[in-house]
Records
---
Amino acid sequence: MKIIMLGAPGAGKGTQAKMIADKYGVPHISTGDIFRANIKNGTELGMEAKKYMDQGLLVPDELTVRILLDRVAQDDCKNGYVLDGFPRTIPQAEVLDSELTKLGDHIDYAINVDVPDENIVKRMSGRRACLTCGATYHIEHVPPKKEGICDVCGSELVLRDDDKPETVKNRLNVYHEQTQPLIDFYTEKGVLKTVDGTVPMEEVFAAITAILG
Ligand code: AP5
Ligand code: ZN
């Protein structure tokens, strides 16, 4: 099963993608996590991506597409995957589509997690992230067992550089301009499913599993 998660920054794509990956036994692939891991490790790719991410801008398509296609070509993706944060532009979606078509394959579902802009800024300021293992928490909704420490790997939790309110506003603008058109793109392909992302995460997940079966 090949699934794409769509939605504004902070809509809960990553939260739901991890739950889907666990339940259906497919890898969770987040381009944002790949970039953040590279930044943490000080790689050349990380340094390049950071220039854009810190301003709330998208990393150029060429770089992002290359990384994503390398990742989905790995063995663990044979039976499917859940993509979180990719595609984010029409050109990215077109490349993915044509690569899958070459393999006689296609995306099964594009799940749009719908959350209005007003809720987003509040969510982001409460998010805490583990840059070591990618786990995500929220100071009110999903607190870690021990304040400031990742339950999974024991690393320190941080407010992401791009979760500061000024940057979140830029990310929302970029989302509306460049990513929202993908809703029409996947509607036309007949695979778009929208779920309400404002309800508690277990309820969002129940709506998603009702779609995926
Ligand atoms: P990326 O990491 O993909 O960020 P994003 O899309 O902005 O998404 P987020 O990770 O911020 O949010 P999310 O929807 O996953 O929400 P989460 O589950 O964490 O990308 C970062 C940057 O990398 C981009 O700005 C860009 O520069 C670059 N990039 C990445 N991919 C790219 C691409 N394809 N092309 C170009 N550039 C790219 O939830 C948010 C918070 O809310 C958490 O604290 C969570 O605990 C909480 N929460 C979740 N669900 C609920 C709920 N139902 N109720 C209450 N709280 C909830
Ligand atoms: Zn961790």
---
Amino acid sequence: HRHLLGIEGLSPLDIQALLDLADQKVEVSRQIEKRKSSLHGRTQINLFFEPSTRTQSSFEIAGKRLGADVMNMAVASSSVKKGETLIDTAATLNAMRPDIIVVRHHAAGAVHLLARKVDCAVVNAGDGAHEHPTQALLDALTIRRNKGRIEGLVVAICGDILHSRVARSNMILLAAMGAQVRLVAPTNLLPPGFARLGFPTFTNMRQGLEGADIVMMLRLQRERMNGSFVPSVKEYFRFYGLDQEKLSYAKPDALVMHPGPMNRGVEISSDVADGAQSLIREQVEMGVAVRMAVLEALASHLPNG
Ligand code: CP
């Protein structure tokens, strides 16, 4: 593959190969003496049109741990603010001959469009409510390292599925790797088409979490709701917020995940987020390893790679 635009299009073997490479990168990332400069001389541009803490910083750290020259494009102070389009911005950056561009954009499909306009490798760091492939890969790596497998696990993805690129990428990846994925959400935060995809859906947390090995919580994405449905935080937490009581409906050894950023007291309580069953901090560490693996895999297909 020349680009990583989504989990859609990757085979189970592609996913497994990336997870195996990422597993090696965990140790490389932890130990300076194990680092090799597989991206030495390569130029990586991070182009984020939407805010990010985890994804942007971990792509920067991942690139630097592999020896790449990493440039973070400051979109807020760029000529995008003067009306330059996505395509013109891409063509301008492309003329500087980068090797890899990592893109986050608020419009679904924008990253695919950009990939057609540049000569380098493109990584989707989140496009609208469409896909966030490296998030799904880091979630899968975290699950595999803690449960020893993905196949056969019951994974409950809970909350604002409608607006979530994380949910979409995870659904595709986890189903491809043989997990039993369920969706738990209020009806108006569940895309109507998703029930037809064959994933069991629940509107009730007690039923949805019963027998779950992994409880994956999602942020309520109020910035994508256009005022059409903004539930009261108190009510939302009462019915869908993960607290110790709701977590007790899942298996006793169930593990809790959240891609971040978290809204404590909205979709998850602090004691669960910081509790013994939480993998949330580990997900962040796995984010660096997965991004190292993705950058290295793409660089190996570049000219002179
Ligand atoms: N999970 C995730 O994408 O976080 P950021 O928006 O902080 O990058």
---
Amino acid sequence: MSYQDLIVEVHDKVALIRLNRPKALNALNDNMMNELGEALYKFDADPAIGCIILTGSEKAFAAGADIAAMVDYTYPDTHRDNYIGRNWEHILRVRKPVIGAVAGFALGGGCELAMMCDFLIAADSAKFGQPEIKVGVPPGAGGTQRLPRAVGKAKAMDMLLTARTIDAAEAERIGLVSRVVPADKLIEEVLAVGKQIASMSTSVAIQIKDAVNRSFETTLSQGVSYERQLFQSAFGTPSQKEGMKAFLEKRLPNFEGL
Ligand code: CAA
């Protein structure tokens, strides 16, 4: 399938989706968000894929929602059409792991989209920020909710209220990204991480992702109880049999198709 605003590649069991509106620094418009949903659902349903990577260009992951497209929207337009709500959150319904690979600007809706990935690996060129206040709006795709959960209230309030942009080193220090790599190695490094994840049991990866995401929505005891059920039910799966036998037999496990 070909897309207007995305470039899509498959590397072994890893799908790589690149946001591609270079002239607008990957500003996120309706068509791109619709296409992103289509591509994500396609790879999520593809049994040959074990991990998905979402990235942008060297200059920008995405510089935010498309300001030129929304400048003349009215409140009736945004409310009636459920602007943002209608097509920005497909990524949250993807069951397989999604890694965000961020180089350059991840601002506003770009930072919010990045935070909807399961974890982020940043190039040393990455810059994160929620500058919506400078264009007269609050964040609209989860910035006031996911940023404090990721980095704590003090840093989130600082970034959201001042529109300050932080660099990759600070993003790693405060826990927004899991790793920082040289910009010219970003895709190579993230593909290696994606391949590592895809080489193991996709079912287990889906369970881990589901359980971790629940930890943000539930009490500790309910979350631990859910995890315990997943763990106990794992003993009815081929992943557990293969993984544990392979360890004891001192060989590599074969999780193909699991
Ligand atoms: N929407 C539309 N177009 C954008 C854009 C955006 N968010 N960000 C950049 N562009 C366009 C610019 O208009 C420019 O287009 P032209 O060449 O046609 O003039 C092109 O991309 C290159 O941008 P700059 O010339 O500004 O590049 P720069 O290197 O000087 O600056 C930047 C880069 C600091 C990222 C600057 O472009 C910028 O501040 N962009 C806007 C960031 C922003 O405010 N994002 C939040 C948007 S609101 C939002 O996202 C709401 C939400 O929560 C969902």
---
Amino acid sequence: TPISNITHESILRCLFHHSVPHNLLYTKSTASYTTLLQSSIQNQRFNTPTTPKPFLIVSPTLESHVQATVNCSRNHGLQIRVRSGGHDYEGLSYVSHDPPFLVLDLHSLSSIRVDTNHGTAWVQAGATIGELYYRIAEKNKTAGFPAGLCPTLGIGGHLSGGGFGTMLRMYGLAADNIIDARLVNANGEILDRESMGEDFFWAVRGGGGASFGVILAYKIELVYVPPKVTVFTKSINLSQGATRVTSKWQRIAYKLDDRLFIRAVMQVVSDEKSSRTIQVGFESLFLGEKEELLALIGKSFPELGLKAEDCQEMSWIESVPYFAGYKNGESPSILLDRKPQFNLSYKAKSDFLTEPITELGWERIWQELLRGEEQATIVVDPYGGRMDEISESETPFPHRKGSLYNIQYLVGLGEGGAKGMKKHLDWIRSFYQFMASYVSKNPRAAYLNYRDLDLGSDRVGSTTYTKARVWGRRYFKSNFERLAMVKGKVDPGNFFRNEQSVPPLFPAY
Ligand code: FDA
């Protein structure tokens, strides 16, 4: 539905009236509209001529501009999408399948204040986690923060949906380390932890910001990192015994010392004879020195054959670019670069494992991966450690004790035009079906931040609690009901909505 000229003019007038300057408003006739829209699009699948576009992008530089945008949009019955880092797998921060809509792009709200005396920081939603890591290390070499691997992830989306990375076994999720928040609610008011109350604060630490308000900033607790950490990447393919090593790794990776994180990245590659094979890359961060790591691995995982020359000691902040894929000793200042690192079109899905997969299971999985022509990637991240100590209801993120691994499946959609896209999508959907017998059941769980509209979605704003429960339980298990009740309290008119948002639920009197 195109927006009428009258509404268009009237919302612009409303924003001017509320002191949002012209130069922060981008309509389709503004020269830099497309540059701004595309600036943080991470998935090229949602950057095509037919992708629905916002009729207006507001790029606030002050918190009051966010309030004005919420008030003017609500009064005009308009839908907004909030974008921080633009990494949403389904593009929901800048695409609505039920237009018209406007985008509130927070990239200019990106200040970071690190308080080394108290070991805390206030970080605005539009900052990236790369910027956050860099600013923390600049002030204190033995402080860090446990969030995701990709430096361009936005604080607003990543932290509000959970957020995990290489320090999760030691310190839990990014959301577990949030101690205060500032947000704009559906009435356009600015609230902090005290004024929003504990239920609302609970919801925005894993329930996804998009259903509840506009996160302006989070206050986080920094964590201790030793002056030296050790990293390694060791890749093994099928002919080198990848199946046996993977199966052993699965039996122990979630039980190892909390300071040790070893993930597995599984890919279809070509071997020296140009035949397709599977390569498993074990990527590891140890919050300690090389000698101790070698002793730990020698004792619990000798099958890996790890040698001193496979390991590199470095500072924690140097390990961040390493895990982001910069393996040539790039300076940490690369973390300040906000440009998307990849320019890919892709589809991803996620699962949790509640028991290790057997060697026979892995053999079947490899066969299935090798059967087609797809260049698929599977990333398996071990949980355990600190994750086991936090109860399922402590935050909306319920995948705690008993969720041994998170799995992510990824497939590129770029090759072969529209026909190719359909083939790749069909492939990942059928691979996901194939995996059903190995992964969690009732519900088959998924991670909100790896958003997947295949789990269910609805016309924006029209979904019922019963319908939304289908995907809501998969992301949040029994926390879904509490999330919907919080939504009923803080946004009964369902102003903050998208194709997969939490609908309001009201107590039955
Ligand atoms: P984006 O701006 O697209 O927002 C995502 C969602 O949050 C949208 O619904 C949006 O409306 C909402 N939102 C954003 N800002 C908001 C605000 N201020 N207030 C309210 N709602 C807001 N995850 C992980 O846990 N560990 C990892 O290592 C990685 N790595 C990774 C790499 C790459 C390349 C991608 C594309 C994604 C990941 N992720 C990840 C997933 C990531 O955590 C997830 O996509 C986050 O939602 C991204 O947050 P952004 O702010 O960047 O996204």
